[in-house]
Amino acid sequence: MYQVAHINKYELIKVLNSAARNRHSVTSLEEIKSELTIVKRMVANIAKQLNSGSEVALQDDVSLPLNTFEQVDRLEQLLEEKSCKDQMTAFLGTIGGVDDPTAVRRIMAALLGNELATKFNWKGLGNKRSFYDLKLREVMAGELLS
Predict the structure, then answer these.
(1) DSSP, res 123
(2) How far apart are CA 121 and CA 90, in angstroms?
(3) CA–CA distances in Å: residue 93 to residues 1, 26, 27, 40, 107
(4) CA distances from 138 to 37, 56, 86, 143 (A)
(5) Is the CB of residue 96 less than 8 Å from the CB of residue 103?
(6) Helices 100-111 and 82-95, axial angle in degrees (round to 10)
(7) Which residue has the higher pLDDT, 63 or 60?
(8) Which residues touch 15 (CB under 8 Å, ≥6 apart)?
(9) Global pTM?
(10) For the DUF4806 domain, which residue ranges apply (predicted)?
């Protein structure tokens, strides 16, 4: 048979309190780690801007936010050129956000005017245009993954 060591209730409370503090410390460290990741991403975006030597600019014939399908189609044509794609990637990198969902919202707001944005969805269902099929989406996804 096993013998159970005698622990008085004060010692048990002391052990449980210590475990609770340790659990709280681990949770706090995980939160700090998450916030550090966000800060590192923000610093990387700032460093990109500083290393470029100047503010990132788009081609003269690209005006954001886009407000018509014609503007979207024109930008899609321009994005076939590597130099334009690189400029757009650099520009989107300057927008950023503290996390991916925030970055996506901010980038989308910079890219598409409100009225035009309502005419898109991911797959192009229900008489809407597909955002998934756009080169702009590829550029945006590439920037978020970098």
Answers:
(1) S
(2) 25
(3) 66, 33, 31, 14, 9
(4) 24, 19, 12, 9
(5) yes
(6) 120
(7) 63
(8) 7
(9) 0.62
(10) 60-137
